């Protein structure tokens, strides 16, 4: 700090209600992390950056703290303009310090609108209030956020294998000393071997991610504590402003963080809903090829940071034992993402309104499957929004063939790398079902065909009741769909399970 004002003295000043030019709620709450101090005054919160240099971030000078506070303001305004307000100087006024004065600044703070801490998604989760609907809305919000984030040739450089691998290598170097304390030698070696081999074997994949503009200025720290529901609106906040390699990343880096956070909390089902919602909105099913790498990375970083507590002499033994347990859980999760998994292919089959998607969504959360709807694939191929009603042009025989070809292409790609995949479409033609069966048999992949069935009148009622679904199907199509449905052949029947969805 400047002018002989220490950090502890400055904190005492900001804890004083008279320091603020507005009414405050007393006592003022102070929340500290290793890099910042936040003062909760009631209507407003003020963030002070600590004068620290950890290598990956440097707030050691007043100019740097001013710069990074303004960076934080600039980066978070687009996603949380109602929360992030302005950067203000703290100046000396005689013997006193003043907020927003005209003298020479001795420090800077970021002024934000304060929201209740129980609005955080982490708090909602702990209280059992993080609903499936909120998670779906989050998936759509993050998809929209990523579509608007910037990218350019400079940002894309951070998607090169050498740059990405640097962070992985550093993680392993910094955690070797915790082997047989917080993780096993086997876990360490297998996790590192997997990521090393992934980088070596997937040079073309990383190149494709760069060429497809998937390396963007992302959030960088997308977990439940940095998401809130305030005034019935979801906000992403606290984006990484202090380190370019942490935010100039593949969009799957963000997604991997959020899914990992839910996995670590024992709610793979919510992580699955978030992931499938996001992927359906963006059409970035290819991104699932790099997702396990980033899930492992995010879990490993959590493990590493927790392990650092073991080196802190000010931390008591009880806290260190808790840290070992927490770090061990994260190391195990990071290792788990790297383990070989066997894929499975499931075809949903049936007329519009037969409950295919309802059954598929429930099943996806149970087996942690990727759920791909033909309606989404068709609209992505046509280049239209999922919320936009398709014209007859996207329902021609040619377009339907392209849709089913793309479904199988995605299914085979993902099954081969170990994902259970649910292809959700009418699958009313034998040739489309046969193509999937041929793939499964030739690659010895488990296959099921789930045929959903209910009375025609019920299907009609369901289609009439639809309001916000991405499907364009209407009741007047049912008769022709029923007439054109090609019955299962003798070779198909062993794979078929019929589900009565009357009660779905």
UniProtKB/TrEMBL annotation:
Main EC class the enzyme belongs to: transferase
Pfam families attached to this UniProt entry: AAA_33
Entry-linked SUPFAM superfamilies: P-loop containing nucleoside triphosphate hydrolases, Protein kinase-like (PK-like)
Reaction it catalyzes: D-gluconate + ATP = 6-phospho-D-gluconate + ADP + H(+)
Entry keyword set: ATP-binding, Kinase, Nucleotide-binding, Transferase
GO molecular function: ATP binding; gluconokinase activity
One GO BP annotation of this record: carbohydrate metabolic process
InterPro entries: Cell-binding_unc_protein, Kinase-like_dom_sf, P-loop_NTPase, Therm_gnt_kin
Signal peptide: none
Gene3D superfamilies referenced in this protein's UniProt entry, alphabetically: 3.90.1200.10, P-loop containing nucleotide triphosphate hydrolases
Enzyme Commission code: 2.7.1.12
Biological pathway: Carbohydrate acid metabolism
Keyword Kinase recorded: yes
Family: Belongs to the gluconokinase GntK/GntV family.
Protein's UniProt name: gluconokinase
Annotated source species: Gloeothece citriformis (strain PCC 7424)
Source organism phylogeny: Bacteria, Bacillati, Cyanobacteriota, Cyanophyceae, Oscillatoriophycideae
């Amino acid at each position: 700090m400047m002018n002989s004002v220490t950090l502890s003295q400055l904190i005492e000043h900001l804890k004083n209600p008279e320091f603020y030019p507005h009414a405050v709620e007393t006592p003022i709450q102070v929340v500290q992390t290793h890099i910042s101090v936040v003062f909760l005054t009631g209507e407003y919160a003020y963030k002070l950056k600590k004068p620290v240099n950890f290598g990956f971030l440097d707030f050691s000078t007043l100019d740097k703290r001013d710069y990074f506070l303004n960076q934080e303001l600039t980066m978070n305004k687009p996603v949380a303009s109602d929360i992030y307000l302005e950067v203000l100087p703290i100046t000396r006024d005689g013997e006193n310090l003043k907020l927003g004065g005209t003298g020479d600044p001795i420090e800077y703070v970021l002024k934000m609108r304060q929201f209740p801490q129980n609005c955080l998604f982490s708090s909602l989760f702990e209280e059992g209030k993080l609903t499936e609907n909120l998670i779906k809305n989050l998936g759509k919000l993050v998809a929209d956020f990523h579509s608007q984030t910037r990218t350019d040739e400079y940002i894309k450089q951070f998607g090169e294998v050498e740059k990405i691998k640097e962070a992985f290598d550093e993680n392993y170097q910094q955690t070797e000393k915790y082997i047989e304390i917080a993780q096993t030698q086997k876990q360490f070696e297998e996790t590192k071997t997997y990521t090393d081999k992934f980088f070596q074997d997937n040079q073309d994949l990383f190149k494709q991610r760069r060429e497809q503009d998937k390396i963007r200025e992302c959030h960088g720290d997308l977990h439940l504590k940095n998401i809130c529901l305030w005034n019935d609106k979801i906000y992403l906040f606290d984006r990484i402003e202090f380190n370019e390699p942490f935010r100039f990343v593949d969009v799957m880096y963000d997604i991997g963080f959020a899914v990992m956070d839910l996995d670590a909390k024992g709610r793979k089902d919510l992580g699955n809903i978030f992931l499938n919602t996001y992927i359906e909105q963006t059409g970035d099913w290819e991104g699932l090829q790099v997702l396990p790498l980033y899930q492992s990375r995010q879990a490993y970083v959590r493990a590493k940071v927790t392990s650092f507590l073991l080196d802190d002499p000010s931390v008591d033994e009880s806290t260190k034992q808790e840290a070992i347990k927490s770090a061990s859980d994260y190391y195990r999760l990071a290792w788990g993402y790297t383990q070989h998994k066997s894929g499975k292919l499931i075809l949903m089959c049936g007329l519009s309104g037969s409950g295919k998607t309802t059954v598929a969504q429930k099943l996806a959360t149970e087996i942690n499957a990727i759920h791909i709807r033909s309606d989404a694939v068709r609209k992505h191929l046509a280049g239209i929004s999922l919320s936009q009603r398709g014209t007859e042009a996207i329902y021609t025989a040619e377009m339907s063939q392209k849709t089913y070809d793309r479904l199988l292409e995605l299914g085979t790609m993902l099954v081969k790398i170990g994902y259970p995949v649910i292809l959700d479409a009418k699958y009313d033609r034998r040739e489309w079902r046969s193509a999937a069966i041929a793939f499964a048999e030739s690659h010895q992949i488990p296959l099921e065909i789930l045929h959903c069935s209910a009375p025609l009148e019920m299907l009609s009622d369901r289609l009439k009741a639809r309001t916000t679904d991405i499907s364009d199907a209407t009741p007047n199509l049912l008769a022709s769909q029923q007439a054109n449905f090609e019955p299962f052949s003798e070779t198909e029947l062993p794979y078929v399970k019929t589900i009565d969805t009357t009660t779905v």
